[in-house]
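Weekend entry, working from home. Most of the wet-lab plans are on hold until the incubator is repaired, so I used the time to fold the two sequences that have been sitting in the queue since the last round of cloning. Logging both here for the record. First:
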Amino acid sequence: MVIQMKKTLITLLLIIPLVLFSSVTSNFSAANGISEATIHPSLTPNKLLNVAHRGASAYAPEHTIASYKLGEEMKGDYIEVDLQMTEDGVLVAMHDLTVNRTTNGSGYVKDFTLKELKQLDAGSWFNEQHPEYANPSYAGIKVPTLEEVIQTFGKGSRYYIETKSPNTYPGMEKELIRILNKYKLIGPNTPSSKVILQSFSPESLQIIHDLDNRIPLVQLISYRTKATITDEELHAYKEYAIGLGMSHHRIDQAYVQKVRDAGLLIHPYTVNEKADMAKLLDWGVTGMFTNHPDRLQEVLESRED
C-alpha cells in the first residue's frame, strides 16, 4: 500500500509540470495564431532568448561565418542575419545598405553582383578597429550569402532573420521564403522556432505573413524618444506578429509589462552590459540581442542558482 502511494505521488509530480507547461503553450499559441502542433518552448514566455547580434560581433567581424560560429560557441540561441540583396538577386548577410563600413570596398550592395561582392575583404576592418580581438584569420574573410550561412549551420541551428530596407529590394521576401523552404527550415512539419523573421517594415512582414502565416514574425519599432504604445497598436501588431523589438534605451518596466500583458514577446536590442541585461530580465523581457552572448549567458546562468 505504501509503495503504491509512493508510485502514485511520483507519477503526479511528473505529470503536473507537463500539464502546466502545456497550458501556457496552448494559450500562447492560440493568442498568436501559431499551431500548437509546431510551437516550440523557445517561442513561449518561459524561454529567455539569447540572440547573438550579427553573431558574436563584439569579438569577430559582424555578419561573417566566424562571428556566427563564435555566437553559437557562446551559447547564443539564435544566429541573427540581416539581409541585403545583390544586383543579381542573391540574399547576403550585411547590416548596411553599403559595403563601406564592413569591407574594403565602397558602394551600395544592390550595385554589386555576388561575384563582385565576393572579391571584398570583410574582416580586416575589424582587426584594425578592435586590436584586442584581432585574428589573422579574419583578414580576407568573405561576405556570406544566406544560403551559405544555412549550409554551414544547418537545421540544427536557429535563425533570427531581418529584411533590411525591403523597399530597396522588390521580391526580397519571396526569395527569402524560397530559401527557407528549400532547406526545410519552415513548413508544416518544422518546429516554429527554427526561424524568426523581423523587420522595421510592417509591409514587409505582412508580405511574409501572406506568403506563409505559420512563420513567427517580430515587428521592430524605432523610437526617437521614450517608448510608448497604445492598446490599438498592440492589437494591430498581434494580427501578424508574435513579438516586438526596440532599443532597450527607450523602454521602461511599464512599457515591457504592457507588451507582455498583451500576449506579445519582447526582444530589445542591443544590450551589452550585464547590469542592463539583469534590469531588463527583472522587467520581464523574453529575450534580447547582444554583441556579447557570453555575458548574457553568464547572467542567465547566475539567475538559475
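Second, folded right after the first finished:
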Amino acid sequence: MASTTGKNRSILAGLVAPVTETPTVERGAPATERLSTRLTGLARVTSGDVKEKTLKLVDPARCRMWSRHNRRYDLLNEASCADLLESLRSQGEQEFPAIVRRVEDDPAFDYERALDYRHAVETFYGGVAQRMAERLEVPKAWLSRFLDLGKLPTDVVEAFGDPRQLKERHARTLKPLLADDASRPKVMAEAKRLSGVQAAAVASGKGLLDPAKVVTLLVKASAAPASAKKPAGKGVMNVTNEAGATLFTLARKGAKRVVLELSLDAEASNADFQAAFARELDRVRPKA
C-alpha cells in the first residue's frame, strides 16, 4: 500500500508538469479595427450626431406630485385628456417619459406659465424681474406682462371659470382698471358676480362665458357710475363686502330685536350676503 507522502508527491508532480499544448486563441476583428469603431462612435456622440438617453421604469405607486406643480387637476376629465387616454390604450403603457419640457411659445396655458414665473422671480431672483429676464434672455417688458398675469386677484381669475382660458393680453387690459382706486371696487364686484355665473354654468353642464365676453363685462363695470349710498340713520349700520358694496343694513329695535334690510341691487354675489349675514349673526347673537 503506497504511503501518504508518495501520493502527495504524485499530485505535486502533476501540477508542476511542463505544458506541452499551445492554447487556442479565437480570431476576431483586429484590435486596431475595434478601436477605430469605438473612437468613431465616441466622436459621433461628442459632436451631437448621436444622443444617448436612459429611461427608467418606475412604479407609479412610488411617485408623488411635485410640491410646486401648477396644473389644476380639478379641471382634468375624460374629454380634456382624450388624446392621452387613447395613446395609453393603444400602446398599453405611457409611451413618452413623464418629465417633459413645455413647447416653446405655447399659448395654451399662459396663466400656469405666469404662476411659474412669479414663483421663480421671488424664489431665485430676489424679486428682481430684470435679473430673471437677463437669465432667460427675454425682454423685461415681456416677462413683466406674465408676472402681472400671475398677480391677478383670485376673484378675477375665477370670473373666467377656467384659468386655462386666461391669456396675458387679458391681464394687460385689466391691470390699469385694478390699479385705479375708483374702478377697482367695481371690477372686483363684477368679477365676483361672474364667478357665480360661471360656477352655475359648470354645475348645470352649460358652456362657460367666452373669455372676451368676460373682459368686456369687467371693463364695462369699471365705467359704470358708482351707486349712491343712502346715509345710515341713527342706530343703523351698513354691512358691506370687501369691494365696498353695501349688502344690507342692521337697525336695532330694542334690546332683543334687529331689523335687517337687504340691498338687492348690490353688486355682490349671494356668497357675499351669506358670509356677511353669518358674521353679523355671530356678532349680535353670540353663542352662550
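Plan for Monday: verify the second prediction. The chain has a mean pLDDT of 77.
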